[in-house]
Design a protein that fits this description.
Length: 375
């Protein structure tokens, strides 16, 4: 069956006498009833067996376009005829819809519904996106409260470093020039070194192309027919396949390769214990409290630089941590860390503006971190 198109003839059953007429007839061959909208053209049950139209006159009708329906008597007329064979009327469009009933009324809603019916997956995705955006906006909405300070806690530390003689262990080759009273502790493993120990033969397989596997693909043709709305149908034959289809064949080939093998070898060095003048951590003094009124540094406990032996020095570092528990929205509470210079404003019972947005907390307009979330 070659590719191409052909015309076949359809049939229609007369609604007056039930006679089956060929598509070429516009009026019933048996009773003279003109074909109208109540009589549909029917496709032959087996289109493949239907004869191809080769009469030039019929071919012209088949290719001449769809029938038109007479607006006055309802009968079907050939495209090429410019007046109704039954009543003589000319082809005419039906009158426009009555005024006052706007055809565009609710038009956008209908178009939207039609679009949703045509693209259900796209419409579902759009709806899901809208829900996600709404949830995101709800979670990140800004809420502001008038909050009260329910509790405060502070801790201030002085960390003391001292310049003194320290006893340390190290390696002879890395000893500082200022080290003294150096005693040997003997040889010890300083580090390991990777040393090439030889090669191992490794077997593996590799896939290589080794020919083709081919198959004949049979040609398959099929014919589908669609009505011309004039008593005839156009049948189109399309074919696929034919020829050969080939795929590359792969084979496994055994191969070998040499892989380097390493061993770890210890490298020894002389370990020493020595003394040296240097800075190092010595002690911490801590003060803490639960009121902004008694905030202080533990200067008396730290005693930085007091009564030091000859040659020794001290220096200090200071660290503070200031937490405030804010009550808001009746029974809610949150404990946050505030900056050292802001802490004195958070006296017990004082009121502050608390802003919550997503996971961000601000007190009096300054971002603060929740206790437990600190870096
Ligand atoms: Zn009839
Ligand atoms: Zn007519």
């Amino acid at each position: 069956m070659p590719e191409g198109t052909r015309q076949i003839e359809m049939t229609w059953r007369c609604s007056s006498c039930s006679h089956r007429n060929l598509g070429r007839h516009a009026v019933c061959e048996q009773c003279g009833n003109a074909k109208d909208g109540s009589e549909q053209y029917e496709m032959p049950g087996d289109t493949a067996a239907a004869a191809t139209i080769d009469d030039p006159e019929l071919q012209q009708i088949a290719a001449g376009g769809a029938n038109w329906r007479c607006f006055y008597c309802g009968s079907d007329q050939r495209r090429r005829d410019n007046s109704c064979a039954q009543c003589g009327a000319a082809p005419q469009a039906p009158p426009a819809p009555r005024a006052g009933q706007s055809p565009d009324r609710g038009g956008w809603l209908q178009r939207a519904r039609a679009w949703v019916r045509r693209h259900p997956i796209l419409a579902g995705a759009a709806a899901l996106l809208v829900v996600i955006v709404l949830i995101y906006l709800w979670i990140n909405r800004t809420r502001t409260f008038d909050a009260e300070v329910l509790a405060v806690n502070w801790e201030q530390k002085i960390l003391v470093d001292r310049y003194q003689i320290w006893e340390r262990d190290g390696w002879r080759q890395e000893l500082a020039a200022s080290a003294f009273e150096v005693r040997s502790l003997g040889q010890a493993i300083h580090h390991y070194e990777q040393v090439l120990d030889g090669y191992d033969t490794q077997h593996y397989t590799e896939k290589v192309a080794c020919g083709e596997d081919c198959q004949d693909v049979p040609e398959r043709c099929s014919e589908s027919c669609s009505a011309n709305n004039n008593g005839f149908a156009t049948c189109r034959t399309t074919c696929s396949g034919g020829g050969r289809s080939c795929t590359t064949r792969y084979c496994s080939e055994a191969r070998t390769r040499q892989v380097p093998r390493y061993r770890q070898e210890p490298r020894y060095a002389e370990s020493v214990r020595y003394r040296i003048w240097d800075w190092g951590y010595h002690r911490t003094a801590v003060a803490s409290g639960s009121s902004t009124a008694d905030l202080r540094w533990p200067v008396e406990q730290a005693r930085v630089g007091l009564a030091l032996p000859d040659g020794e020095q001290e220096r200090e570092r200071r660290e503070g941590r200031y937490s405030v528990t804010l009550g808001y929205d009746d029974a809610e509470r949150v404990e946050v860390l505030v900056a050292p210079d802001a802490f004195e404003r958070y006296a017990l019972g004082s009121r502050h503006e608390l802003t919550l947005q997503g996971s961000t907390i601000s007190a009096d307009g300054v971002p603060v971190s929740r206790v437990g979330d600190e870096p």
